[in-house]
Amino acid sequence: MKWLGQCPGCEEWNTLAEEVVESISKAVPKTRSLTQFSSEVVLLERLSSQKEIRTPVGLSEMDRLMGGGLVPGQVVLLAGPPGIGKSTLMLQIADKMSGARDSGLGASKKPVSSLQPPGSVLYVSGEESLSQVSSRAKRLGVSRGALYLLCETDLSKIIDAIHKVQPSMVILDSIQTVYHPELTGSPGSVGQVRECAAELLRICKSRETILFLLGHVTKEGALAGPKVLEHIVDTVLYFETERQHLLRVLRAHKNRFGPTSEIGIFEMGEKGLQEIADVSQFFVAREGQAAKSGRSLSVSVEGTRPLLTEIQALVTPTRYALPRRMVTGFDLNRTQLLLASMEKHLKVHWDNRDVFVNLAGGMRLKDPALDLGICAALVSSFREVPVPADTIYLGEVGLLGDVGRIPFLNIRLKEAARVGFKKAVVPAHSSKETVGVGIEVLPVENLMDAFSHLMKKLKGEEG
Ligand SMILES: Nc1ncnc2c1ncn2[C@@H]1O[C@H](COP(=O)(O)OP(=O)(O)OP(=O)(O)O)[C@@H](O)[C@H]1O
Ligand SMILES: [Mg+2]
């Protein structure tokens, strides 16, 4: 044993972390064995005739994310930064899941100690006291149903409780606070997180109990604890927001039983998280304002779902040798590419301008179909001419100044029409997708086609 300040591997200083060597092999109790899993060899064909059972959570935003509902024995890791609303979301889900029991077989009359019918939920909190959880529950209006609370951080006691209550769903808030009594590391250490998660996973998989693990996210955005946690669970959900006050977005990072492209959108209020099924309407609610220069609207598609997206751009004279380019919610490199393309093909010069771009509502999107909308907002701010308020911009912009075709044009146009837009600037040659959507389409081939009306005014002024 000797003291080391420098890593012999990468030669970096002060990067070594102390780890407790945990010998768990001799402490392995008999109950750890995996024999509860079926070790029979079966023909896949025989299994595939079995019907897939999915339990809907009852929150449509969550169910869409989960591919229709939770699978028995599914282990979900919900991670997010402090205070985003993880505990709130889980309490609301627990309420829905345990409430489902009431509408079931009238089983709610059974005494607590006996075997619970499907629908009972065990909420284990290692971070808050019973009275804190219950006061939040009161605020959220959680009352009915078989929802059991336990404030405990000792894994063995949690496991005892699972055996006693026999819940169909276990929520652990959070994985970083529990400890395995046979390990010496402190709660939240790599060994503890890994072993506690693995132990709970074994129990819940063998009992076909749905397990939610809540996890903290570090300042860097990584999940606190080992990466292996993400590997062993079935689903990893990240709860995030760009700006604390507006929308909260739930994203599936990994999903063994459903899509990862879908997102769930919520708004935090006093009564807890409200689902925003109609995000477009959420933006259109602020639509009353007069058309302003630097603002344009487009429709992006996340998963299978169209989202009306408001783009804001601000172009101002620069005071710096190197003009500033700031982009929130969209890719900076992509935006620079669009600026260059516009400079070349529209003859607008950005070299003495600071450029700021923002997707309203704290959304972070990657959809290239927003390109044309971003260009519209930029040109509009540059020229100080508002884009027509009833027009939506859809199209991918290339380096050659061309407006390229985009996927899901039909879905996007229908969404725009539903929300009340009258005209849509769309890529040329996509007429097949634009029939019967109830919106006037203005096909354009390139940037000049799309923005000649904004540029014309320039010539008029000069003339
Ligand atoms: N009375 C209230 N009215 C409106 N919003 C509230 C109220 N009380 C709490 N909130 C919101 O709930 C959020 C905290 O929710 P919650 O405790 O579920 O977060 P968390 O992700 O579990 O946090 P932690 O990481 O600390 O456990 C606060 O950031 C706040 O926005
Ligand atoms: Mg919490």
Bound molecules: adenosine-5'-triphosphate, magnesium ion
Helix and strand content put the structural class at alpha/beta
The CATH homologous superfamily name of the largest domain equals P-loop containing nucleotide triphosphate hydrolases
* CATH C-level label of the largest domain: Alpha Beta
Amount of helix: 25-40%
CATH topology of the largest domain: Rossmann fold
What is the radius of gyration computed over CA atoms, rounded to a whole number of angstroms?
27 Å
Straight-line distance between termini: 83 Å
- Give average pLDDT, whole number: 83
Helix and strand succession? HHEHEHEHEHEHEEEEHEEEHEHEEEHEEH
Largest sheet strand order:
3-2-4-5-1-6-7-8-9
Question: Tally of extended strands?
Answer: 18
Compute the number of helices: 12
Shape annotation: globular
The low-confidence parts are 101-117
Strand content bin: 15-25%
Q: Indicate the CATH architecture of the largest domain.
A: 3-Layer(aba) Sandwich
Outline the biggest β-sheet. Answer: 9 strands, mixed
What's the domain count? Answer: 2
